[in-house]
TrEMBL record:
Pfam families referenced in this protein's UniProt entry, alphabetically: C1-set (PF07654)
Listed name of the protein: Ig-like domain-containing protein
PANTHER family xrefs: TAPASIN
UniProt KW keywords: Disulfide bond, Immunoglobulin domain
Keyword Nucleus: no
Amino-acid biosynthesis in keyword set: no
Amino acid sequence: NYFPMCLPAGPMVRPSVSLLQPSSEKLSGGPVTLACLLASYSPQGVEVRWEVDGTEVAEGVLNSLEEEKSSRYSSSSTLMLSQENWMNAEVFSCRVNHHDHRQAKSFRKNRCEG
Protein backbone atom coordinates (compact mmCIF):
# COMPACT_ATOMS: atom_id res chain seq x y z
CA ASN A 1 0.00 0.00 0.00
CA TYR A 2 1.17 3.47 -0.86
CA PHE A 3 0.34 6.32 1.49
CA PRO A 4 1.20 9.86 0.48
CA MET A 5 3.51 11.63 2.88
CA CYS A 6 1.62 14.22 4.88
CA LEU A 7 4.73 15.62 6.49
CA PRO A 8 6.02 18.88 5.06
CA ALA A 9 8.94 18.54 2.70
CA GLY A 10 12.14 20.25 3.65
CA PRO A 11 13.40 21.54 6.96
CA MET A 12 11.34 23.21 9.64
CA VAL A 13 12.17 26.89 9.59
CA ARG A 14 11.07 29.07 12.48
CA PRO A 15 9.47 32.41 11.70
CA SER A 16 11.38 35.54 12.45
CA VAL A 17 9.01 37.69 14.48
CA SER A 18 8.96 41.49 14.60
CA LEU A 19 6.69 43.53 16.82
CA LEU A 20 5.99 47.01 15.47
CA GLN A 21 5.01 49.68 17.94
CA PRO A 22 2.76 52.53 16.88
CA SER A 23 4.63 55.67 15.90
CA SER A 24 4.14 58.65 18.15
CA GLU A 25 2.15 60.60 15.57
CA LYS A 26 -0.35 57.75 15.47
CA LEU A 27 -1.06 58.16 19.16
CA SER A 28 -3.06 61.38 18.93
CA GLY A 29 -6.64 60.50 19.61
CA GLY A 30 -7.60 57.65 17.30
CA PRO A 31 -7.29 53.89 17.68
CA VAL A 32 -3.78 52.51 18.14
CA THR A 33 -2.53 49.65 15.95
CA LEU A 34 0.24 47.21 16.81
CA ALA A 35 1.60 44.82 14.21
CA CYS A 36 3.32 41.47 14.57
CA LEU A 37 5.18 40.40 11.42
CA LEU A 38 6.19 36.81 10.77
CA ALA A 39 8.71 36.21 8.02
CA SER A 40 10.36 33.39 6.07
CA TYR A 41 9.08 30.31 7.85
CA SER A 42 8.22 26.82 6.68
CA PRO A 43 5.89 24.97 6.65
CA GLN A 44 2.80 27.12 6.90
CA GLY A 45 0.56 26.98 9.94
CA VAL A 46 1.27 29.66 12.49
CA GLU A 47 -1.02 30.81 15.26
CA VAL A 48 -0.70 34.30 16.67
CA ARG A 49 -2.17 35.45 19.97
CA TRP A 50 -2.01 38.85 21.57
CA GLU A 51 -1.70 39.64 25.24
CA VAL A 52 -2.09 42.97 26.96
CA ASP A 53 -0.65 43.07 30.48
CA GLY A 54 -0.58 39.27 30.48
CA THR A 55 -4.23 38.82 29.49
CA GLU A 56 -5.08 37.34 26.12
CA VAL A 57 -7.16 39.60 23.91
CA ALA A 58 -9.17 38.55 20.87
CA GLU A 59 -11.07 41.73 20.15
CA GLY A 60 -9.51 43.97 17.52
CA VAL A 61 -7.18 41.23 16.22
CA LEU A 62 -6.80 40.79 12.47
CA ASN A 63 -4.67 37.96 11.07
CA SER A 64 -3.54 38.03 7.47
CA LEU A 65 -3.44 35.04 5.17
CA GLU A 66 -0.13 33.24 4.91
CA GLU A 67 1.68 34.10 1.70
CA GLU A 68 4.20 31.83 0.05
CA LYS A 69 7.31 33.09 -1.69
CA SER A 70 10.04 30.68 -2.81
CA SER A 71 8.76 27.97 -0.43
CA ARG A 72 8.88 30.27 2.60
CA TYR A 73 5.78 31.73 4.20
CA SER A 74 5.07 35.11 5.72
CA SER A 75 2.07 36.55 7.49
CA SER A 76 1.10 39.29 9.89
CA SER A 77 -1.27 39.98 12.72
CA THR A 78 -2.47 43.36 13.90
CA LEU A 79 -4.05 44.41 17.14
CA MET A 80 -6.20 47.54 17.22
CA LEU A 81 -6.68 49.16 20.61
CA SER A 82 -8.79 52.08 21.65
CA GLN A 83 -6.87 55.08 22.91
CA GLU A 84 -8.15 54.33 26.40
CA ASN A 85 -6.96 50.72 26.37
CA TRP A 86 -3.59 51.80 25.03
CA MET A 87 -3.19 54.45 27.72
CA ASN A 88 -4.16 52.07 30.54
CA ALA A 89 -1.92 49.17 29.52
CA GLU A 90 1.78 48.68 30.03
CA VAL A 91 2.98 45.48 28.37
CA PHE A 92 1.99 44.25 24.90
CA SER A 93 2.91 40.78 23.68
CA CYS A 94 2.62 38.91 20.42
CA ARG A 95 2.78 35.15 20.99
CA VAL A 96 3.52 32.88 18.04
CA ASN A 97 2.96 29.14 17.84
CA HIS A 98 4.60 27.40 14.90
CA HIS A 99 3.81 23.69 15.17
CA ASP A 100 5.55 22.65 18.40
CA HIS A 101 7.60 25.81 18.68
CA ARG A 102 6.53 28.85 20.68
CA GLN A 103 8.04 32.28 20.81
CA ALA A 104 6.92 35.68 21.95
CA LYS A 105 7.83 39.30 21.37
CA SER A 106 6.87 41.93 23.93
CA PHE A 107 7.41 45.54 24.56
CA ARG A 108 6.83 47.60 27.64
CA LYS A 109 5.60 51.15 27.31
CA ASN A 110 7.52 53.69 29.26
CA ARG A 111 5.48 56.09 31.25
CA CYS A 112 7.53 59.09 30.20
CA GLU A 113 5.45 59.95 27.15
CA GLY A 114 4.39 63.60 27.32
